[in-house]
Amino acid sequence: MTTMTMAQALNAALRDALREDERVLVFGEDVGPLGGVFRVTDGLTKEFGEDRCFDTPLAEAGIVGLAVGMAMGGFRPAVEMQFDAFAYPAFEQIASHVAKLRNRTRGRLSLPMVIRIPYAGGIGGVEHHCDSSEAYYAHTPGLKVVTPATPDDAYWLLRDAIADPDPVVFMEPKRLYWSKGEITPADRRAGGFGQAVVRRAGRDATLVAYGPSVPVALQAAESAAQDGISLEVVDLRTIVPFDDETVVASVRKTGRCVVVQEAQGFAGVGAEIAARVQERCFHSLAAPVLRVAGFDIPYPPPILEHAHLPDVDRILDTVDRLQFGDEPDLLHLAREVS
Amino acid sequence: MSVRTSRQAVDGLLPSPEPVRFIAEDGTAVPAPAGYPAPADEQLLEAYRRMVLGRRFDRQATALTKQGRLAVYPSSRGQEACQIAGVLALREDDWLFPTYRDCVALVSRGMDPVEVLTLLRGGWHCGYDPAATRVAPQCTPLATQTVHAVGMAEALRRKGEDGVVMAFIGDGGTSEGDFHEALNYAAVLHAPVVFFVQNNKYAISVPLARQTAAPALAYKGIGYGIPSEQVDGNDLVAVLSVLTEAVRRARSGGGPFLVEAHTYRMDAHTNADDATRYRETEEVERWESADPLARLETYLRGRGLLDDEAVAAAHSAAEEYAARLRDEMNADPETDPFELFDHVFAEPTPQLREQRALLAAELTAPED
Hints:
The structure holds 2 protein chains of 2 kinds. Chain A folds into 2 domains: about 1-190, 3-Layer(aba) Sandwich (Rossmann fold); about 195-335, Rossmann fold (3-Layer(aba) Sandwich), CATH 3.40.50. Chain A is about 35% helix and about 20% strand. Chain A has helices at about 5-20, 45-50, 60-70, 90-100, 100-105, 135-140, 150-165, 215-225, 245-255, 270-280, 305-310, 310-320, 330-335, and strands at about 1-5, 25-30, 55, 75-80, 115-120, 145, 170-175, 180-185, 195-200, 205-210, 230-235, 240, 255-265, 290-295. Chain A has a 7-stranded mixed sheet, sandwiched between helices. In chain A, helix 10 links the parallel strand 13 and strand 14. In chain A, helix 3 (about 60-70) runs parallel beside helix 4 and helix 9 packs across helix 10 (about 270-280). Chain B is α/β, with parallel strands linked by helices. Chain B has 15 helices and 7 strands. In chain B, the strands form 2 sheets. Chain B has a 5-stranded parallel sheet with strand order 1-2-3-7-6, sandwiched between helices. In chain B, helix 11 links the parallel strand 6 (about 230) and strand 7 (about 255-260). In chain B, helix 2 packs across helix 3, helix 2 runs parallel beside helix 14 (about 310-330) and helix 3 (about 80-90) packs parallel to helix 11. The longest helix of chain B has 26 residues, at about 40-65. The chains are: A alpha/beta, B alpha/beta. The interface between A and B is large, with 45 and 39 residues.
């Protein structure tokens, strides 16, 4: 087993993919000699040359559009958007072409390409550097949307994404870039792309989380355990395809569910999960499915981001509202009345 | 540090001050422009036959729209010199990235007209095989295809193929950001791509003067370091000569090239548009006298390359083609609602499988 940070794991995944498949290319802004602003592409130009890992002009629609053309021409580009909000100029390319080319051409053309996007906050970034933009992509049919929460998943999901016949938006939680973990050898890897994983088994309620919220949910579960409440934590790993089976099995077992996301809550991924859970687990539920999310505000300035980001307390407060005492959610009702 | 731009480098990128022209509007030859060889006579005759066919196809498609057989049709009548020259300048293994207004170019490339019209018929979004035809799906979001063209050109170059990519775009499309990103990327990558702007003077209703303040759209190349040319877009000989040179240059490692053809959209934007709301009939009539097909015919007759018999043969072939197309389009296309789920991903997700089953239940449910 090798221990590395998530950024190193992503770097290793790109390196191994470049090594094993000459069709794989890495390009984007500052990904060449600099190695990317988060150093995820560190050393790749040196090892594979400027033909395989190269800097592009500073234009995101151009990066993604170029990748579309090169994928049509037989390559497998893995491109980098420097930050979440900097990917927006590429949105038309992503929504109108990346997501649709297979469908438009009745399956005659496919786009095996990966768009890596460092996303979400918690690193003290100034505006336009901390957006949780996953819902835009998850809402677009034809895109697979992946977000790892551990270095192991970062490595393996990125390898899977590059090998996938369909376009993948690969969302990297910035604040987990420096988190450390072990990478499972290939022959001992269990589960994978499209499968959620139970990160911590529990009895009383299920926390469903993904990406940057998974470590927060795990801390909350640890804290709750000290109070005698046993929380199960499910890490989605891929938002699309969505693993109903794992989520549903967990909630049917625990009978209660809180969905945790860092993104603003309205019309977000968490709303979709809450709807799916209540549609499938209604008779197993002892309380309404609740959501923990960021507020419906533009991402705050760094000094105030702590007030916005879902933390352990917000999760535990929400778990408290799961009617364990067979009481209705009075706090919530009181708020509505006032 | 001193910064100095050589005059020579700048001049090498600029288009000719006047559009390149071989044939005057009355069909007589003008003195041959420098640097552009005249295409072979046989190629001009082939171009003539294809223009006759293309115009007949266009008229048939317009008629099919009126009959309800097409959902919409954006005519390219008046732009045949551009449509046919663009295709003739390319080899079969070169790639073309067309827009929705380029059906005539596609059928002129020998593609099945029913497959070409699948998009406008509403049967599917693209009816032909892009890999087999080396023609990208006709693109509706303006200018987005130009960046793909650069990517494909770069892919061909990296694979050691000597193929060239041509991206079609209209005057309105040159205002979109993607066009500028495409020019910049092509120049930086030195990609073998030719950008071909058919300036037909209108973006739906908006005239060119409201689209740009540039002296001509061809001048948009210089800022990116791309050599450019402007050409009389209703002069088949000129468009073919200029595009052939641009393609030759790109194929031999000379990098990207930008060509602007000055032409005119004789019909409305589509059948759903009313052009009388934004342009004068006199203006359209003036352009009738610059008609590219009549001009080429007069020119070829004047040179003794074309006679009544050849003209009649071309028209007769076009009539047969149109009759066949009409018959084929009068049959309802076969559709399968379940195909809606087949091409979203290589393998449908569990959710798509569920939704497919839901649709199946809806379609087999007894009527109330």
